[in-house]
Amino acid sequence: MTVVSVDKDVEALSLTVVAEFDADVKRVWRIWEDPRQLERWWGPPTVPATFETHDFTPGGKASYYMTTPDGTKARGWWQFTAVNAPDHLEFDYGFADDQGARMDHQGAAHATVKLEPIGARTRMTMSTTFESEEQLQKVSEMGMEEGLRQGIGQIDALLAEPANA
Length: 165
What we know:
It is a single chain. The model has no long low-confidence stretch (mean pLDDT about 95). The protein has an 8-stranded antiparallel sheet. The longest helix is centred in the first third of the chain and has 9 residues. The protein has one domain: Alpha-D-Glucose-1,6-Bisphosphate, Chain A, domain 4. It is α+β, with helices and mostly antiparallel strands. The two termini are about 25 Å apart. The radius of gyration is 15 Å and the shape is globular. The chain is built from 5 helices and 8 strands.
């Protein structure tokens, strides 16, 4: 199993996912850096993501939508706050409206991704902090924890392919 642990800490307003992969840090970095690879795992298999923009630089923005089985598109945005190849990434993120504009009234979250070598493998720790307990509860009710498990569960197959696939 790729996902080693999922820890929700209500006091710290955080959700942390730890996963391990049979690939080196630089290869795992590519699944964040390349939007076509990111699309293949960001979200559960039944709700794939499509990245419309992906400016993978500090201050850069990404916009995407996830398509549910009934065809509904749920939109989101990212703003990269740190991009330190090949092992550290941070971004703010949240929901977007039908035109892709930020829906600030729903709040934003902050994600920190750290990649570290463990022998020939890589440990990825993705920690998300939320603005409020209500926001954390809402995304939990929406299935964020299970969605992350399922999404990250798709990474092993992606990593088994050539890096430029």
